[in-house]
Amino acid sequence: MISRVLAAGLLAGLLAGLAIAVLQAFTTTPLILEAESFEGGHGHDHAQSLTAASALLQHAVLKTAANGAALIEIHSAEDAGMWMPEDGLERTVFTSIANVGTAIGFALVLLAGMLLAGDRITETTAIGWAAAGFVATGLSPSLGLSPELPGMPAADLVSRQAWWLATALCTAAALWLILRSEHGWAKALGVLVLLAPHIWGAPHLEGHAESAVPAHLAAQFTGASLAVHASLWALSGFFVGFWWRRLAPASA
């Protein structure tokens, strides 16, 4: 069973991650590069534009697929600065590696959830679980913290990550209570849990902060990031179901 879970997760993540890397090359990555041009391409905090899918996502510690391109930050002892992949092939390779790693994580989470719930693992079931994953890690957090381009003003990173994590966990718990519980009180509790982080409010900068990034570019990036994030979850779910059935023991 463990070997089947690992094999299905790895294969699903590999295929989904590579597919999303291609999608990002034509959607979110050009927007990130254009945003960088408004500040010379070097002066911003690259940690704010890491992707893992999201999620995975954007305001999580890994800051994955939601932001569309991996900007790996490595501190060098020689120059006390930041190393970053060069634009072009090197950046594409590192972005693809980040996407594959994120997709593998998504696939394993989906498998674990379905196995614990006792659900039959098929493409349809896995995509349903993936939709819930996108709502929890992408759609719900974006209501308070939208995906951000380099150069856009934002509140403290740790505060945003904490709010993102709390929102994702609350949304996941709420979906479970609302969709899988048969008790009315549990569904009502789920609605309250779903709304709680949004009532609390996401962390934002006080006052008005100027941004060098044009508003239309930021809006386009928000939509594209969420679409890429949703695609990563959907492809991870599909390939999980696909490989799970094909890796079934012959005796089954």
TrEMBL record:
For this protein, the record's NCBIfam families field holds:
CbtA (TIGR02458)
Q: Which Pfam families match?
A: CbtA (PF09490)
InterPro entries referenced in this protein's UniProt entry, alphabetically = CbtA_put
Q: Which UniProt keywords apply?
A: Membrane, Transmembrane, Transmembrane helix
Write down what this protein is called.
CbtA family protein
TM helices/strands, residue ranges: 93-117, 124-142, 162-179, 186-203, 223-244
